[in-house]
Specification:
- With 312 residues, the chain is of the alpha/beta class.
- It has a domain at 14-35 and 50-172: Luciferase-like domain (TIM Barrel).
- The protein is built from ten helices and twelve strands.
- Helix 1 crosses helix 2 and helix 2 (54-64) packs parallel to helix 3 (82-96).
- It is globular, with a radius of gyration of 19 Å.
- The termini are close together.
Amino acid sequence: MRVTLFVEPHRGATYDDQLRLARHAEAAGFEGFVRADHYQSMSADPGLPGPTDAWVTLAGLARETSRIRLGTLVSSATFRLPGPLAITVAQVDAMSGGRIELGLGAGWVEREHTSYGIPFPPLGERFDRLAEQLAIISGLWATPDGASYSFDGKHYQLLDAPALPKPVQKPGPPIIVGGRGPRRTPALAARFADEFNMPFKTVAETATAFERVRAACERYARPPGRAMTLSAGIVVALGRTDAEAQRRAAPLHVKSVLPPEDPVVGSPDLLVQRIGEMAEIGATRIHLRVIDMSDLDHVDLIADEVLPQVGA
């Protein structure tokens, strides 16, 4: 099982906080370090000192780590134009030596858009824009050297783009599409993604989502050899004692706009069991969301008592 750490810096984390945790996760043996891409806290707590830009952060981490994979889970298609985003991700991929992954979604938190003057179209249009962005980014990365790329969509038009720079990974960094949507999300994953992620839900709900994606992959002709990675997100609050686990879980009880989640709170063995259940339904990658980014002991507990048991 491939196991990454997932963090939410918009809750309150500096670049140095993220660098410390990414380096610690790399040394502890985690495969990846992925972060949310938000510009505002989801709760009444403003998340001091404030947000950090995901791709500026990942560019820095790319130069200050050596092995761990890095990416977003997920960037919002409303935040950036697809052409410049393709350039940014390709450049950070080169800066990392080919360790970058792009998670891309439609965007869903209206408040952070209105706070910072970012347009927030209706849901249907956001998904339309996401589909065009996925097509454009994939198309730019796949364009042969010396050729140009054009795209004539409803929301984006590109004319004779030189499709440069090229990322280190070929044909491009892995693309992650995730979410709970029953119709458009599986279709977009099947058409464009290397990985589908179901975030922070029960095993049964995750299994249903995986089945929808498998069915969508059968409907759309995927290139030969392009397998679909199925991954699950799990919120974790572990402890050597129940009191320690409950202390780490305390922030989960703070009211926010997040959808209901199914966290693992308790001993490392409970997480090993949950990962095993996810493996049984087809997951080959797990993204573990740790709540307190300064709690390095929590990361060590997972590394010491969970990773060896799940073959990470």
